[in-house]
Amino acid sequence: MKKVIVSAVLFVGAVLSSQAQDISKNSIGLRLGDNDGFGAEISYQRRLTPINRLEFDLGWRNSDEVDAIKLAGMYQWVWNIDKGLNWYAGAGGGIGSWSYSNEGESNDGTFVFISGNLGIEYQFDFPLQLTLDVRPEIYLLSGDYRETNFGPDLALGIRYRFD
């Protein structure tokens, strides 16, 4: 029985350690999404281990009355589905600044948020990566920035991969 358990643990460990070999050491690009207005983020990913990476996004949002800029950081776990196709999940947070202006009334402030991340990505044979993900954000210390403290951020990303 011990041999079966040890063999199973070794097999699972080997599978998990070899699944995400397609993760690039670095990638940089754009993440385009909609959360409180259409916006874009400059996105950078850095591999830490074969199955983990960090992602940093600096972005802006623009709607009819509200403009915002934010910095987000995520720790992600990546699992391989098939060659070049991965899914990932992560957690993180960030900070931001916003301004509101409408019919002579204006306001501004800062906010802090925590977030999760769930997505799918495809890495081509050449150094291009496409992603689709959702990043639900819970806003803390947001003042009048939002009517609720929750914002689902759905985005499409395109990144150049390099080592």
Describe this structure in words.
Strands 1-2-3-4-5-6-7-8 form an eight-stranded antiparallel β-barrel. The chain is elongated. The chain contains one helix and eight strands, in the order H-E-E-E-E-E-E-E-E. A hairpin with a 4-residue loop joins strand 6 and strand 7 (128-140). Helices cover 11% and strands 69% of the residues. It is mainly beta and 163 residues long.
Task: Give the integer mean of the pLDDT values.
Answer: 86
In what range is the share of β-strand residues?
A: over 45%
The H-and-E topology, N to C, reads as HEEEEEEEE
Helical run tally: 1
First-to-last CA distance: 44 Å
What's the overall geometry? elongated
Given the helix and strand composition, which structural class is it?
mainly beta
In total, how many beta strands? Answer: 8
Name some characteristics of this structure.
8-stranded antiparallel beta barrel, elongated, 163 residues, mainly beta
Q: What's the arrangement of secondary structure elements?
A:
Layout: H1 2-19, E1 26-34, E2 38-49, E3 52-62, E4 66-82, E5 85-102, E6 105-123, E7 128-140, E8 150-162
Antiparallel strand pairs: 1-2, 1-8, 2-3, 3-4, 4-5, 5-6, 6-7, 7-8
Outline of the structure:
The protein has one helix at residues 2-19, and strands at residues 26-34, 38-49, 52-62, 66-82, 85-102, 105-123, 128-140, 150-162.
